[in-house]
Amino acid sequence: MGTRMNKYTSSILRNQWFLLLIVIAVISVTTGSINPRFYNINNLVNILEQISVLGVIASGATILIISGNFDISVGASIGLSACVMAMLMKAGVPPGVAVVAGIGVALLCALFVGVNSIVFKAPSFIISLASIGVFKGIALFMTQATLQTIYGEFEAIGLTRFFGVVPLIFLISLAVFLIIGFLLGYSKLGRRVYAIGSNERAAFLAGIAINRNKLVFFAINGLLVGIAATMLLSRIGAAQPSTGAGIELLAIGAVVVGGTPMTGGRGRILGTFFGVLLMGVISNSLNMLQVSPYFQDVTFGLLIIFSVAVSALSRKSS
Amino acid sequence: MTSDNLILKVEGITKSFGAQRPALSDVSFELHSGEVLCLVGENGAGKSTLIKILSGAETPDFGTILLNSKETHGLTPRDAIASGVATIYQDVELIDSLSVADNIFLGSEMQSAYGLGVDRLAQEKESKRYLDLLHIDIRPSVLVESLSAAQKQNLQIVKALHQDARILIMDEPTSSLGFEETRSLMSLVGELRSRGMAIIYISHYLEEIFEIGDTILILKDGERVGLYPRLAVDVDFVIHSMVGRDASLFFQRESVPVGDVRVIVKEMTWDEVVKKVSFEVRAGEVFGIGGLVGSGRSELVGLIYGMYKRSSGEVIIDGRKIPRGNPSSAIQSGIRLITEDRKKYAMFGQRSVAENITITHNELTGGALLNKKQEAVLTTTLIDQLHIAVASHAQSIESLSGGNQQKAIIARWMLDDADLYIFDEPTKGVDIGAKEEIYKVIVELARRGKCILMVSSDMPELLSMSDRIGVMRAGEMVKILVKDQSVDEHLLIKEFVGS
Fold it and tell me: Are B368 and A198 a contacting pair at CB < 8 A?
């Protein structure tokens, strides 16, 4: 009886998402008791809106990190993609066409990172680090470092709320989580993500086409970056090369907080979802508690270190 | 042995992890300087736990350890090193990017005059003295990354000696060594013994134990079966005590009728590593490949599997030419390779047993989605068929014992029918019980008319399993021996060395 109970509790504790849920609840209740406006429906909807773009980026990062890869150029490629979309729209191209072109740009950026890391057998972390400069430079040159505003022209995606409360972009984000979760858990592609991340050499010898599959992982990430850029552009109504900068670190942070180790081979999308939600709730709570916004960066940094520590300690105990 | 050279006395050590039967219960023994104590037992008998306790990685629940006439109830790793206990692990713990001398002196560097940095020359001179003492032929100035596995192991021993170790624990030191290297390790152990070192030697290879052991400590299910002077027991007795039943080092393999030629390997060549190797394998035949480490055995089978790109040569199965390709295309063409180092080349450690078993099956079958129901059925079937001991399908493969890991990897290759099965060191680091089951799988494949290639460094295995044995020497297949009464270990060794 006692051991069964232990087994049950320990299996819950091993699921990092459950811990995150508790942390999220505690933070929410604490903030709400200090500032009841936290519970205001508009504030809650606001949280969902704020985490939507991060959620899409973090979903892509989950696939890459589990497979043992990184793409830290996604912030720069969001900037480039959003600028291309905005400039096309300003030039009178229909929004639909502009969006397709923008997503295409993000896809090419991701493939650029993927192909270079595969061909030169270099860690994708380094290749994507170098790519930040490439993408940002192109965006700066195209825009001549000016803000591309399209206020009022492309608001439908960003502003639509179903029944007046549920934001469309949150539904898009949720759909992305579900699709990536399905891919990871129920498709052969997902199996390859885990296998390549766990032991690339063994995956090769087990008959998995490593390069082709890695390229697919990068392409999926690129597609998601393009979607995120579209959502972001529609929400803020303007783009510049620095749009999206820094989101890659938040996304990687959310993935790690969600229990996926940086070494790959393991992890679940549910963890990432709660990691993203936690970041959204913390950010909002700090606003509600009128903490200086500069402290948000400090908090996120410490949170990531804390969650790495938690997983290191739980590995040690097991 | 007189009591004054007693160096270690372990009394009533008990250790459990969780609710099941203890990993070790009430184990006692004594060790004297200049004694080689061999620790034997099947996987899970408690050998590793005992080593961990002696090296300070685990603390016993009960019992006492008398080390250098000091009594304790448990050691920390620091205590163990300070008391002169050095453990040489299978996975070598050296720093590749440093020189041999730097590794030996790591943490106790020799200061140069005026304390200005490390005195490299003095360190190298001192290292050379140690290396010469043990007749080890390594230059102190070379980087560790350029050493072979055997040399690295020797280096660890030198390092232990430099740290004034008085008890050396060697855990499966020969599992990744070839024949010659094992020989030289054996003589090194003898050398250390004559210098008064006490050695605890763990190995699955009973021949080694009977060659170098003074005493044999047998563990079974965490309990001490007995501690015997080597001269008082024989191999059969030890095996019987370890497994609780009679078994032979020589697996009595049943013979299977051999049919027509199915696989032809023609002039397989890869630069200077494998040179113009040709042979044929018949239906139902086990074709053994023997030779020293570095003779090109593993590379030859790797070439057939497309793990490396061959320079020239052909593989023909049932009249079909197999294109020069990669493992994926070799698998499609009906070739299977059970690799030598399962952790490095086969296992997805953190992933479940089910995922590890079905990974290639999923690649071979069409469709983008997994069929989880079918996966569960297939996994259950193979777990039953190969007697793999698992708690659940979802258990991670790295949490299984070595023998069960190997069986799970073999299961991966049994899911889909193929023509040529290549086993590279199929029973390395596997206990005797699991060994027999793996042999049965190989014989069953032969019975079904499959062709089998088996690379092995284990002489009894090579002799008892193979119908014919191809001898590799310096990248060439110098001879193909048909197994009959005249082929024995001595003949094989002669052929391997080429004298």
Answer: no
- Evaluate whether B218 touches B241 at the Cβ level (below 8 Å): yes
Left if phi > 0, otherwise alpha if psi is -120 to 50, otherwise beta: which for A101? alpha
Q: What gap in Å lies between CA A303 and CA A23, rounded to an integer?
A: 12
Query: Using a CB-CB distance cutoff of 8 angstroms, which residues of chain A are in contact with residue B332?
Result: 207
Q: Which two tokens stand for residue B90?
A: 């299978």
- Answer yes or no: is the ipTM higher than 0.90: no
- What residue of B is the nearest CA neighbor of A197? B348
The stretch A242-249 carries a mean pLDDT of 92
* Domain spans of chain A, in order of start: 47-245
Give how far Cα B65 sits from Cα of A196, B53, B160, B168, B246, Å. Answer: 45, 9, 21, 16, 34
Over residues A85-136, the pLDDT tens digits come to 999 999 999 999 999 999 999 999 999 999 999 999 999 999 999 999 999 9
Nearest-5° angle of CA B315, CA B319, CA B321? 40
Q: Which residues does chain B have within 8 Å of residue A210's beta carbon, measured at their own beta carbons?
A: none
Contact partners, residue A187, CB within 8 Å, separation at least 6: B368, B369, B370
Cross-strand pairs, B227: B217
Query: Tokens standing for A107?
Result: 């896809």
Residue A316 binned pLDDT confidence (cut-offs 50, 70, 90): low
pTM of the predicted protein model: 0.79
Which domains does chain B possess? 3-243 (3.40.50.300), 261-497 (3.40.50.300)
* List of chain B residues whose C-beta atoms are within 8 Å of the C-beta of residue A5: none
Whether A202 sits inside 8 A of B351 (CB atoms) is no
Q: Percent of chain B, pLDDT > 70?
A: 95
Question: How many Å lie between the alpha carbon of B464 and the closest alpha carbon of chain A?
Answer: 28
Nearest CA in chain A to B19: A3
Residue A143 Cα to chain centre, angstroms: 26
B contacts of A186 (beta carbons < 8 Å): 369-370, 372
Contact A207/B360, CB-based, under 8 Å? yes
Residues of B with Cβ-Cβ distance to A3 under 8 angstroms: 19
Strand B215-220: give its sheet, edge to edge.
B85-88, B167-171, B198-202, B36-40, B215-220, B223-229
Q: Residue A5 — very low, low, confident or very high, per pLDDT cuts 50/70/90? A: very low
CB atoms B327 and A205 under 8 Å: yes
pLDDT tops 60 at residue A2: no
**Residues of chain B that touch chain A, judged by Cβ-Cβ distance less than 8 Å:** 19, 305, 307, 326-328, 331-332, 337, 339, 344-351, 355, 359-360, 362-364, 367-370, 372, 412
- Two tokens, residue B75: 């050691």
- The chain A residue lying nearest B397, using CA atoms, is A198
Q: Which residues of A touch B370 (CB under 8 A)?
A: 186-188, 190-191
Residue B61 scores a pLDDT above 60: yes
